[in-house]
Design goal:
By secondary structure, this protein is α/β, with parallel strands linked by helices. The chain has a single domain, classed as NAD(P)-binding Rossmann-like Domain (Rossmann fold, 3-Layer(aba) Sandwich), CATH 3.40.50.720. The protein has six helices and seven strands. Strand 4, helix 4 and strand 5 form a beta-alpha-beta unit. The protein binds NADP nicotinamide-adenine-dinucleotide phosphate. Belongs to the short-chain dehydrogenases/reductases (SDR) family.
Length: 230
């Protein structure tokens, strides 16, 4: 049994991951912006109330992140952090259409948010015998695979997250730090035409959180466990 920490666990891939984690008998600290309104999460709480802690956190708000970690007990261990929360605010924008306010917000949530969460989680991860951090990235953040261009803000936000995660892997040889592409998934972000269901993606991602270890640190995989180009 491991203790997982998941951001953006109220819907989409984050909710799917939360279900997988609990179904397998683990402990879960799950965060979202508005816990009170999240019926799906409270249903999980009803089924697994001994195993789940639901906390309010907005990854764009420093105080909100600090408050969550300050509320954890001194003996709290986090074995596996999954930074899942993310936004895709402007789709397909070309150079002339870049909205820099949206870009700034996207970088704040998708790139800096996960790093702020990881920075605060570090003392709790260091108490684990096998600490792991998984950053939910996107193939759209791959520079090598960018053949269609556009979506400057989202692509850049995930490329920055990829680079910072590689730095974490280099700096912390005893911690597994990996970026994971969840597939093109049927969520409000991915849309109904996406070929991968939330359950398929979440199951694949969860299996990888168990399978991957320090020898895989600093690498980029998709939800099927296939290595992807940076
Ligand atoms: N779906 C895909 O095809 C796809 C493909 C590649 C990568 N991804 C990545 O997968 C992750 C999950 O995406 P998804 O498809 O599940 O998207 P989603 O259904 O739109 O869910 C996004 C999640 O992020 C949360 N979130 C957004 N801004 C936040 C903030 N400031 N603080 C805390 N939580 C915040 C949302 O919370 P609220 O409910 O409060 O808004 C929600 O829980 C993202 O990192 C995304 O970039 C998705």
């Amino acid at each position: 049994m491991k203790t997982y920490f998941v951001t953006g666990g109220n819907r989409g891939i984050g909710l799917g991951l939360s279900r997988e984690i609990l179904k397998a008998g683990n402990q879960l600290i799950v965060t979202c912006r508005n816990p009170k309104g999240e019926r799906d999460l409270w249903e999980l709480e009803g089924d697994y109330h001994e195993k789940i802690k639901i906390l309010e956190m907005d990854v764009s708000d420093d105080m909100s992140i600090q408050k969550v970690f300050a509320s954890l007990g001194i003996d709290q261990v986090i074995d596996t952090l999954i930074n899942n929360a993310g936004v895709f605010e402007q789709f397909g924008e070309k150079l002339a259409d870049i909205d820099f306010e949206k870009m700034s917000r996207t970088l704040l949530i998708n790139s800096m948010g996960p790093m702020k969460v990881l920075q605060q989680a570090l003392p709790f991860l260091k108490k684990s015998s096998e600490p792991k951090v998984f950053q939910i990235t996107s193939e759209m953040g791959s520079i090598a695979n960018n053949t269609s261009g556009g979506s400057y803000a989202y692509r850049a936000s995930k490329a920055a997250l990829n680079m910072m995660t590689k730095c974490v892997a280099v700096e912390n040889p005893n911690m597994t730090a990996v970026v994971l592409h969840p597939g093109w998934v049927q969520t409000s972000m991915g849309g109904s035409n996406a070929p991968v269901t939330v359950d398929e993606s979440a199951h694949g991602l969860f299996e990888l959180t168990m399978k991957l270890d320090v020898k895989d640190s600093g690498r980029f995989f998709n939800f099927k466990g296939e290595e992807r180009p940076w």
